[in-house]
Amino acid sequence: MKIILLVLIILMIIATIYFAFKSIEFRKFLTGAFFVSGGIQLYLAFAKVSIPVIGTDIVQNSELGYIRGALHLLLSLVCFYFGFIKKSKQ
Questions:
Q1: CA distance 79 to 11
Q2: Which of 20, 50, 75, 89 could form a disulfide with 34 if both were Cys (CB 3.0 to 4.6 A apart)?
Q3: Structural domains counted in the chain
Q4: How far apart, in Å, are the Cα atoms of 7 and each of 4, 11, 25, 86?
Q5: Buried/exposed code over 59-77 (b: 16+ C-beta within 10 A; e: otherwise)
Q6: Does 13 map to a domain?
Q7: Mean pLDDT along residues 43-63
Q8: Domain span at 61
Q9: How many CA atoms lie within 13 Å of 35's alpha carbon, on the beta-carbon side?
Q10: Degrees to nearest 5, angle at CA 59 with 79 and 65
Q11: Is residue 65 a part of any domain in this protein?
């Protein structure tokens, strides 16, 4: 089961990177998605909520939530820059 989840995660990462390079609108969507995800991660980490990973025995603790939240907010800023501020060469 863990191998199937790992393969699916890798495929999703590859598909996301492909569409992010091809579409400005997708980068705009990712801006909002990363912003909301980062906010929720930070909120749950601040509340000291442990999050179980579906299908496994792994539990994400609040310290990892702070790291993931900060990373998602950073990715939100990167997507915001490339989706809204920087003009494409086309």
A1: 20
A2: 75
A3: 1
A4: 5, 6, 27, 33
A5: ebeeeebeebbeebbebbe
A6: yes
A7: 90
A8: 2-85
A9: 11
A10: 35
A11: yes
